[in-house]
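User: Hi! I'm working on a homework problem where we have to compare a predicted structure to a textbook description. Could you give me the structure for the chain below?
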Amino acid sequence: MAPNMCWLGLGNMGKAMSSNLAKKGQLEKPIVLWSRTISKADAHSSAIGHASVAKSAEDAVAESDMIWSCLTDETAVRQVFDGILKQDVRGKLFVECSTVTPEASNELCAKVLAAGAEFVSMPVFGEPSMATAGVLTCVPAGTIESVAKVKPYLIGVLGRAVIDYSGVEVGKASLLKVIGNLFIVSMIETLAEGHVLAEKTGLGSDNLEKFLETVFPGPYMIHSKRMNSGAYWEKEPIVNIGMAQTVASHVKDMAKAAGVPIPLYEVASKHIDLVASQVGKGGDIDGVYGAVRLESGLDYKNSRP
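Assistant: Happy to help. Predicted structure tokens:
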């Protein structure tokens, strides 16, 4: 029998992942949704069907056996779980997908286990369109028994691949997520510099994209098309720049503590801060392209026909 489930947090990733659970997870009962903005939960419930809305995170957890969460940042995670763990959660399984530090993940796991529940840390790799398509890469960590309960909802439901950290300290999954961010942001920085150089040397961004599509398909093209089309300033962010600043701080702190220089990432982090200063914390991670444009004597916004 499928467990009763709830989803806490309805940002772009939370909406996409909870939708796939509701539609593909073969749940017997509607998934329970919670967001700090109740109207957002109401709208999402109506959009996906087979869902209901809880007035509080505590109410959502009380109704559920398996609790999934994908919250804005580490502060939000701590606040929500501080409230949840005041009630009886014995026998429940928490699957936490937010981007947090390894230390926070281990601390949260200890609190959940002490309350008599199970805990799986499961950061994911992929941006919202990949979450919508159900092709994320999932990294579940926790006891072998707890991760086994989560696996039926990964391949073919939430993701296309699993990096299995069964039996591994949960903080290791968060550590991979933080280090993985170094690769992703460095890729975005390289794309931004390449597009601006192509524009200023006369090659043109469209011709550069033909090269990228041939040699670097996949994530490179997702971000390249957002830069070249102007989506980085015209459309809803795929990653909020305020969140990117928070994660960048985690990456730099970790690298400093380990004694590892990360000069390319330091440059990208500076550009992330420049995006925030130009358009506010609601800007997009691909606005790094706009930051490089500014430094190169161009306007932040590109112009497309």
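For your comparison, note the following. Residues 171-201 form the longest helix (31 residues). Residues 94 and 101 are 17 Å apart (CA to CA). Good luck with the assignment!
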